[in-house]
Structures are given as C-alpha cells and as structure tokens.
Design goal:
By secondary structure, this protein is an alpha/beta fold. It is built from 15 helices and 7 strands. Helix 4 crosses helix 7, helix 5 packs across helix 7 and helix 11 crosses helix 15. It is elongated and about 135 Å long.
Length: about 425
C-alpha cells in the first residue's frame, strides 16, 4: 500500500506530460495544415487572376506581346500630338521655337542623358521614352507654363511632368557639368582675353562676374530673407561669363537678400582666382608689368588685383568721395561697355529659358538645380551654334521684372591693398589708346 501511494503522484505527472505533448503535436499539425491550405488558396487566386486577365486580353483582341494592358482604373491620354506631329511633322523652326534648340542638339542631349533617364517597362504600363521625357522638361523650362497644360499636350500626368523636370535637371548637372561648365584651359583663357579686347575694348580680361535673380513664390520659412533690393522675392545666383558669352562658373541657391560680396568671397571662383587658376603661368606682360588676367565685376564687389570694378561716381549731385578724374571716367566707361557681355549673356539665358525670367513656382529644392541646368543648356546651344531668335529677347524685356541694381560698397576696408595700382595701370592704357 505504501508503494502504491508513492507511485501514484509519479503516474499522474507522466499522464499530464503525455497529454500535453499530444496536444502540442495536434496544434502543430493543425497549424501546418492551415498554412498549406492558405498557400493553395493563394495559388488558386493567382492562377484565376491570370486566367481572367488573359480572357480580357483575348476578348479585347489584344495580343500580350504587342501591347501591355494598363490598370483598369488608370486612363491613357492621347499621345497623338507627340508621336505624329512633333516626331514627324515638326520643321527646324518649330524645334527651335518650342524646345529652344535644333533637332540635332535635342537628340544629342537625349543620348547624353540616356544613362540617367532611361526607364524599364513594367507589367502594367510602358515607360516613357527618353526623348519624350526630355521634351516635356524642355517645354517647361522654355515656356514656364503650368504643369496641367503640358500634361494635356503630351498626354501624361501632371506628376509625371513634375518628375520629368526634376529628373532631367539633376541628370544635366550630374552628367554634363564636366563638359559644359568647367574651369577654362589656358588656351580658352587666351581666346577669351582676345575677345574682350577685340569686341569689348578691354584688355587682359577673361571673364565678367554678375548676379542673376530668379523670381520665386513665397517660401514657407524665412520669406524676408528672399526679398532682394528691388523688393520682390528671388533666389540669387552668381555667374562668371567668358568673352564668348558662355558661363564658366555658376554659384546658385542663395536667398535674394544675400550680399553678393559675401557670396563671391566664399565661392570656388574666388579661391581659384586667388590661387592664380584663371591665368597662365607665368603671367603675361601688360603695360610692361607681369600681371595675371583680371575679372570684371559690379560695384558691389571688393576691389582686388585680379578683379576690376568702377571708380565711385557722384549720384544725385552728392558724393562722399572725390569725383573721378578724366582717366578714371574713361576707365569706368570702358568697364561698363565690357560688362555688357554678362548682361547680354544673362538676357539670352532668360530669353531662351523663360522659367528664369518669370516667377518660378517650383520648390526651393529644385530652383537652384534648374538654374544650373539652364546655364549648361545655354552653353550647349551656344557651342552647337543653335540660332537665337530676337523675339524671345523682346518678350522677356516686356514681361520680366527688372534685375536689381547694387550700390557701391560703403567701405573699402575689404578692398585689397595695392589693387588700385592695377586700376591705375588700366587707366594709363585707356588714356594712351585715347590719345
């Protein structure tokens, strides 16, 4: 009896463990059966869906290897205008007027951007060809019309238009900057100096530095920082223009209220010029003196031995300084004439790509890239010899807001010492030429 009493608890424990083990095995088997049944139902649904799609394609008389059927809830706008009119009926004048470049330059641009813009077809829709993506973006840059209008014209969605513009601008900056927006070689510096002398009458000069304001919509943050001296909101860019009217350096993305002198002093162009990167080594001789090539700038920039600006002049009959002498006045006139190269280049830029002349409704994260892309496209068109229509310039002159003008720096404390000696050297040159 005592042995039975000792064995009974052990038997109860073993019975409980065996029952629990059996329950666990039954639960695991049930879970496994449920998973198998779920996979079977999923596979049946997948096969039924494919069967339905195949029946719909057969019923519609569409072969699967000819055209991919779009989603039932998506619409397919007409692309007849692009495929029939543009690609087959556009004349050279139409390409130039609508896309601001020749047909040859257009397809050259498409081939250059193909590695970044090409997309693959999916099982539900065909990808837009690179040529159409570039055309959509160029139409926007050239006209600055609404996305909705371009969407209807090309038969694509408004979001697609926005994406095409953004993608193309980024692709241009990434792939073409090294070709069309780079530091000039020594031969290009010499050619630019010859053009400044022969066309603009200013010797020993290779580029002009200027500012470009692009009108924008009111930003959500720090809107007052974007108010420029003319009173409207803008993004400020700094450009360096060669004697050929091409851009060598572009520094964008600054609020319109930023001081141009601060931008210039913190730019790569300033560092390059200080190091002598814009002049051959050893420097050439000018007026019997070894002198590096110089840049020309507006009155708001600090005077440097390599950056010439005008002597201060009286304004409204008042002056806080001595009036310029006759040689200094002659220097100012020649400098003003030479600065026309940057004024004309910027005017051609804004006339060709009117997204820079009208108020740009893109986000602040897109506008700087768009400015860089337009400058690169400007250089490409100029290099390929594409025509420029005078009526584009007339349209911009009528519609755009005047670019702000900057006053003379109130202090010369940031002017380089002995830079006025270089100024006087140019005064002597112009006086000799005038006599």
């Amino acid at each position: 009896m005592e042995g039975d009493e000792l064995v009974r608890p052990f038997m109860f424990l073993m019975t409980y463990m065996l029952l629990k083990r059996r329950g666990d095995l039954n639960y695991a088997n049930m879970q496994r059966r449920n998973e198998v049944q779920r996979r079977i139902r999923h596979r049946q649904y997948f096969f039924q869906r494919q069967r339905r799609m195949l029946m719909m394609m057969i019923a519609g008389g569409i072969r699967s290897n000819d055209r991919i059927r779009t989603r039932p809830w998506s619409t397919t706008p007409s692309t007849d205008w692009w495929e029939r009119v543009v690609m087959t009926e556009f004349q050279p004048s139409d390409w130039l007027d609508r896309f601001r470049m020749s047909r040859e330059t257009f397809f050259h641009l498409c081939n250059e951007l193909r590695p970044r813009l090409a997309r693959q077809d999916t099982s539900f829709r065909l990808a837009l060809p690179v040529e159409k993506r570039v055309a959509v973006a160029l139409w926007r840059l050239a006209s600055n019309i609404e996305y909705r209008t371009i969407s209807t014209l090309f038969g694509v969605g408004k979001s697609t238009v926005c994406r095409c513009v953004r993608d193309m601008c980024h692709a241009i900056v990434a792939l073409l900057s090294s070709t069309y927006l780079r530091r000039p070689s020594e031969q290009e510096l010499d050619d630019s100096a010859q053009l400044f002398l022969s066309k603009w009458g200013f010797p020993h000069c290779v580029a002009a530095v200027a500012t470009l304001h692009t009108a924008i919509i009111t930003p959500s943050n720090n809107a007052s920082d974007y108010a420029n001296p003319a009173g409207w909101l803008s993004v400020l860019s700094q450009v360096a223009v060669s004697g050929q009217g091409k851009f060598w350096d572009v520094c964008a993305s600054f609020p319109g209220g930023t001081d141009p002198a601060d931008i210039f002093q913190n730019s790569s162009l300033w560092a390059t010029a200080v190091e002598g990167g814009l002049s051959p080594y050893p420097p050439t001789t000018f007026m019997g003196r070894s002198l590096r090539y110089v840049l020309l700038g507006e009155a708001c920039y600090p005077l440097q031995s390599w950056l010439m600006k005008a002597y201060p002049e009286e304004k409204d009959g008042r002056a806080n300084h001595a009036a310029p002498t006759k040689p200094q006045g002659l220097f100012n006139r020649r400098l003003s004439e030479a600065l026309r190269v940057s004024e004309e280049a910027l005017l051609r830029l804004r006339a060709r790509w009117q997204c820079l002349s009208k108020r740009n409704d893109c986000g602040l994260d897109v506008v700087p890239t768009m400015v860089l892309a337009c400058c690169i496209l400007h250089n490409m068109c100029e290099s390929h010899g594409d025509a420029f229509e005078a009526m584009w310039q007339a349209q911009v002159a009528e519609t755009e807001s005047p670019q702000p003008r900057y006053e003379q720096l109130p202090s010369t404390c940031i002017d380089q010492k002995h830079a006025d000696e270089v100024q006087n050297l140019f005064c002597d040159y112009f006086e000799e030429q005038n006599n």
